[in-house]
């Protein structure tokens, strides 16, 4: 589709999710002033034109967590941290990317555990240290399995 004929992209910022990403990502994303220095320094962007750290920081600042973890470019990053070093405002795009990857993997694993009703082992659960995972409207819930001594 030609850029001129593309429909406008409407984005509804999610302040609550923005605070959540900010707290979880520890990347100081809200300090970004969109200077593009990180884009200019990123070796993947220079070589392929496919990874703009600034774009990832913008998604975080709009609170678009679902869209952020679905971005293919979070998996292109080499974790070289050049973007972190070059940022004049001490924003850490590489740290944010690692957070997005971890969140994407966590959701995939929890989705699988919930869909296949698999048991999760954790020493923080009461004996026998097993739990089911249930999907809720806002995320996931771990439900410990009750001990049944009947043989
Ligand atoms: S850490 Fe990733 S996003 Fe940052 S400069 Fe390196 S490859 Fe690019
Ligand atoms: S270098 Fe820092 S301030 Fe500039 S666009 Fe990247 S994250 Fe934002």
Describe this structure in words.
There is one protein chain. By secondary structure, the protein is mostly helical. The chain folds into 2 domains: 10-109, Alpha-helical ferredoxin (Fumarate Reductase Iron-sulfur Protein, Chain B, domain 2); 117-151. The protein is 43% helix and 9% strand. The protein contains 7 helices and 3 strands. It has a 3-stranded antiparallel sheet. Helix 4 (53-61) crosses helix 7. The longest helix is centred in the C-terminal third of the chain and has 23 residues, at 93-115. The radius of gyration is 20 Å and the shape is elongated. One iron/sulfur cluster (SF4) binds at residues 32-38, 53-54, 57, 86-87, 89, 91, 93.
Specify the structural class.
Answer: mainly alpha
The low-confidence runs, each spanning 5 or more residues with pLDDT under 50, are: none
Q: Tell me the CATH architecture of the largest domain.
A: Orthogonal Bundle
What is the number of helical segments per DSSP (H or I, 4+ residues)?
Answer: 7
H/E series, N to C? HHHHHHHEEE
> What ligand molecules are bound, each kind once?
iron/sulfur cluster
Give, in spatial order, the strands making up the sheet with the most strands.
1-2-3
| Rg (CA only) | 20 Å
Average residue-wise pLDDT: 90
């Amino acid at each position: 589709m030609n850029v001129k004929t593309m429909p406008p992209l409407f984005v509804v910022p999610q302040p609550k999710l923005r605070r959540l990403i900010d707290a979880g990502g520890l990347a100081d994303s809200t300090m970004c002033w969109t200077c593009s220095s990180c884009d200019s320094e990123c070796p993947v962007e220079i070589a392929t034109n496919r990874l703009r750290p600034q774009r990832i920081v913008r998604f975080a600042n709009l609170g678009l967590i679902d869209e952020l973890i679905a971005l293919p470019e979070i998996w292109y990053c080499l974790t070289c941290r050049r973007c972190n070093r070059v940022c004049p405002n001490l924003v850490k795009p590489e740290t944010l990317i690692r957070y997005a990857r971890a969140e994407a993997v966590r959701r995939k694993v929890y989705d699988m555990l919930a869909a296949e009703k698999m048991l999760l082992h954790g020493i923080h659960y009461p004996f026998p240290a097993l739990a089911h995972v249930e999907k809720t409207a806002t995320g996931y819930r771990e439900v410990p399995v009750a001990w049944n001594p009947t043989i």
